[in-house]
Amino acid sequence: MTGYLFLAILALSLVAFYVGRSTASRFVASHGAEVHSRPLYHGAFAAVWVGVPALILVVLWLLSQDGLIDRLILASLPASVTEGVSASRLSLYLSEIKNVASGRIFSEPSPEILAAAERYQRWQAIAGWAMVVVALAVSAIALYLARIRMAPKFRARQSFERALDIAMITSAVVAILVTIGIIVSLTYEALQFFRLVPPQEFFFGLNWEPQIAIREDQVAGTGAFGAVPVFTGTLLIAAIALVVAVPIGLLSALYLVEFASERFRGIVKPILEILAGVPTVVYGFFAVLTVAPAIREAGSLVGLSISPNSALAAGGVMGIMILPFISSLSDDALRAVPQSMRDGSFAMGATRAETITRVLLPAALPGIVGGVLLAASRAIGETMIVVMAAGLTATLTANPLDGVTTVTVQIVTLLIGDTSFDNPKTLSAFALGLVLFVSTLCLNVLALRIVRRYREKYE
Amino acid sequence: MSENTLTTPKPFDWSSPEAAAMRKRRYAADRRLRLYGLASIVTAIGLLGILITSLIITGHTAFVQTHVAVEFTADPENVPADDPASGNFRAVVATAVQKLFPEADSPAELRVASGILSNGTPNIVRDYVTANPGLVGQTFTLKVPASDPYDQLNKGVIDRDLPEDRRRVSDTEIALFETLEARGLVTTPFNWGLFVNSDSRFPELAGLAGAIAGSFYALLVCFVISFPLGIAAAIYLEEFAPRNRWTDLVEVNINNLAAVPSIVFGLLGLAVFIQIFGLPRSAPLVGGLVLSLMTLPTMIIVTRAALKSIPPSIREAALGIGASKHEVILHHVLPLAIPGILTGTIIGLAQALGETAPLLLIGMNAFLTSPPGGIMDPATALPTQIFIWADSPERGFVSRTSAAILVLLGFLIFMNAFAIFLRQRFERRW
Amino acid sequence: MNMLTDAAIENALDKTPAREAVKMRGSDVRVFYGEKQALFDVNLDIGENQVTALIGPSGCGKSTFLRCLNRMNDTIDICRVTGDITLDGEDIYNPRIDVVELRARVGMVFQKPNPFPKSIYENVAYGPRIHGLASAKNDMDAIVETSLQKAGLFNEVKDRLHEPGTGLSGGQQQRLCIARAIAVSPEVILMDEPCSALDPIATAKVEELIDELRENYTIVIVTHSMQQAARVSQRTAMFHLGNLVEVGPTDKMFTNPEDKRTQDYITGRFG
């Protein structure tokens, strides 16, 4: 039904366009050059008035309707059912009511539930029809108002352009809203978490065992939320990734910019870019399928026992993933160094290697450092490779042959499956997410600032 | 040369042996650096090569599927003619297996024999008979997928020459299977099931149809939201916005947003779309919303680049003949920038197609045996399906996962190639 | 400025072409950029301890010729040079010749000052370091000081040798680049419009410096300014459309040119 409603609003809006245009055409016929805007703009003006408010209304309605009805239904349950019942029990009631309402009856429901299900169905229907009526009424009123405003002197073009401006500004604001949404939602849930677990335990505790029993019959630990081993694991894997990616990426960029022929560069650069386009889930599978067994094999040859989900395998594959970033950002940084620096050095009789190591690298260093920081932020925030190839248990170790876990792995494992927003296990994921967001944000801001300064220097 | 009053350093003798040795060292250093660079490039390309080769080696076998031709009899005793779907097809299959191996008489032997056929065989036969009700009471031949171990055996993944205790198929099982092979009942056609089936617990029946549909719906939502929003925001920032602290902030914000880890968007989606707005978990709608928020910064950045590349002379020409600023942009600038914007959009969507982590958090990793019917139905996406299969213990899923990855990479290559085509076909140099 | 001009005229008067020994010689030099030919059979001798000015309108090939003299054109992939160029009678395009050594012996100063993003000291020490000309720190200090003194910059920068070279004014930067070039004791210094990015006062200083350097070095300078050529050079070569039109003592070129094109160019009919 919602789909038809959208179509109906669009159709009304189209009607409004033709009404507006033909009205204005009549103005033109009667008033000639006095008419301010072309008929087209009168039509567009009317269409915007009819379509946009109604569409916004419907979207808001749809977003809030379910939540509102859920709350009303729960409130309408007799006190005998809801008294002293936990929030998760209530949500179970709610899903039972919805199941019954949609005809999926598993066991004999209680009479209260049956009644509530009937109410639910009725209210849903009422709400749906109310939405249709209200939306169409809004459209009709808008069409009437728009028609009243139309006159030969009416500045329809300006009005339409103002509507466009508002639409554009709103779109630009969405980008900010996303950031604000991230910050607010993460902070809110993290604060909930810190109400249950003191921040000092989270930031300085050395023991991470978040698997608490949600129901009494589950077997699980008592729960400990010291995130230090999770942080060190993240840093260990990111460090391994950088150790792999920085030399290879930087040296490839050096070769491509300073040594390679135009043709060689034209062939190799796109190939390196393919590495950047491979989805991370593919790298994760590659780590599990090929790299981790190979590392284990190699380890057993020299008599080392290597964990099947060693930090080395995850970090190494992550290094392959961030390699193209480092190489393309270093490439940019090196190419930004003016040719006159190279000329100056060559004219002194320097070899290419001397020019590179003594002039170009120092000159390009800020750009390269910025690139490495961006890559580090990517490594810290990368999820799929570590989810598939790194471990789940948080060990406080610096040994790359051991299994460690990372912030992103923990977020995924904590949030997959049952999620209820009132236990520390779920909420801790948001606290980790906040730490992740803030740290990568700092790295990014720093890196982007360095890179920008550097570009300005040579522009 | 040094009658100068200043203390000129003694002239350097370039032809001395020391100078020659020094030069040799310097050139050696030069060659070394060049070699390191080349070695790095070879390493990087080699790693890409290993990645792709290992995927092809493990994945190519999943593009064919071992089938066994079996004669089934839809005995009216088991299959009622008025409602074939309610029939006892387990019994039908059991009878067929008995007929297939007349010499097998012990129940244990029969159990082994029926293990050759996929576990889903009764369902396959039921669907076939339901679609052709006239078959009740008839005998017909149907090619059904072999179960995973025999599929692997047939494809040579399981080595028959290994000692019995080191392979998953026993000698008896191989002997049974070989009698089928000898009777020419085993075929290995192209595995259409990979594209038309949805997920299944049995590797031989699992396919990508659900995941492809889920990805399609999610990308559709992502496109519908991020394309107009991105273009509108980019036009505003590039053409209308005043240069002040506010717009600077927006700018910095967009650049940073593009570098926020994708999993954070998943957390946002979980907390806002599912928790606050109460949208259904696992729905492509939510997946698409999350992906669109992720793609939005990319979309804005590429659109701005496309707008920037339109020379100011065009704007000035249109403004000069009395067009309003909006008209200039709608009539002239935007149409010229469209190829660039589309190219960027496709590349942004390709990124979104490969994105996994945020979809995991909003539950698009459910086990679903039917494709979604719309954007509100629970669904998986291609990358999350890969993740699910990669996590599955059955051996057969290893090659399925690689095959799914090859399919995903195929889509990505197609999208990027299309973007490159667009760029080359329509791009104008000013 | 007046004083300088007078000095230049005096220079021009007492100058005898016979005094010179040939330091570098180009015979039948042709340069191609891809398919396009930029220089046509140029034959030009560079006299020792003399300033030779290369003049001509933009794009006439004078800079191209200059860059051939220390093989800077090698760094451009599509550039091809034929003919002979010798330094002290030795062909510099001979494969046995080491380009590193050649460039140490034939230094170069560019149009725009291009100090490295390093300290003043490190800028000057760059050449000696890469060529291994100084083993002890004292030696290096001495080279840096001498070079800066020769470039007339030492007194201005002696208190801030370890500050970045990019912080100097344009004229100081260009003299720093000259100091950098002479730190490896080259025999020839090539200057590609060294004053075009400088203001008149800085230009005067650099011109004065060029005149002083003539005693110890052979200098080839490309310039757009007729006055500058007249002031600093002893011999002038006029290029036009990739051809060497005329070469001779500077005073003669500016008072009594043989070629019509030279005359037109000098009097400002084209350029």
Task: Output the keywords.
heterotrimer, A: 459 residues, mainly alpha, MetI-like fold, 2 domains, two-stranded antiparallel ribbon, 78% helix, B: 430 residues, three-stranded antiparallel β-sheet, 16 helices, 3 strands, 62% helix, disordered N terminus
Descriptive notes:
- The complex is a heterotrimer of chains A (about 450), B (about 425) and C (about 270).
- Chain A has about 450 residues and is mainly α.
- Chain A contains 16 helices and 2 strands.
- A two-stranded antiparallel sheet of chain A has the order 1-2.
- The two termini of chain A are about 55 Å apart.
- With about 425 residues, chain B is mainly α.
- Chain B contains 16 helices and 3 strands.
- In chain B, helix 8 packs antiparallel against helix 13 and helix 15 (about 380-390) runs antiparallel to helix 16 (about 395-425).
- The two termini of chain B are about 55 Å apart.
- By secondary structure, chain C is α/β, with parallel strands linked by helices.
- Chain C has a single domain (about 1-265), classed as 3-Layer(aba) Sandwich (Rossmann fold), CATH 3.40.50.300.
- Helices cover about 40% and strands about 25% of the residues of chain C.
- Chain C has 11 helices and 10 strands.
- Chain C is globular, with a radius of gyration of 18 Å.
- Residues about 1-20 of chain C have low confidence and may be disordered.
- The chains are: A mainly alpha (about 450), B mainly alpha (about 425), C alpha/beta (about 270).
- Chains in contact: A-B, A-C, B-C.
- The interface of A and C includes residues 346 and 359 of A.
Overall geometry of chain A comes to flat
Number of structural units classed as domains of chain B:
2
Measured on Cα atoms, how large is the radius of gyration of chain B? Answer: 32 Å
What series of H and E elements makes up the topology of chain B? Answer: HEHHHEHHEHHHHHHHHHH
Remind me, CATH topology of the largest domain in chain B? MetI-like fold
Largest sheet of chain B: 3 strands, antiparallel
What is the average per-residue confidence, as pLDDT of chain A, rounded to a whole number?
86
CATH superfamily of the largest domain in chain B: MetI-like
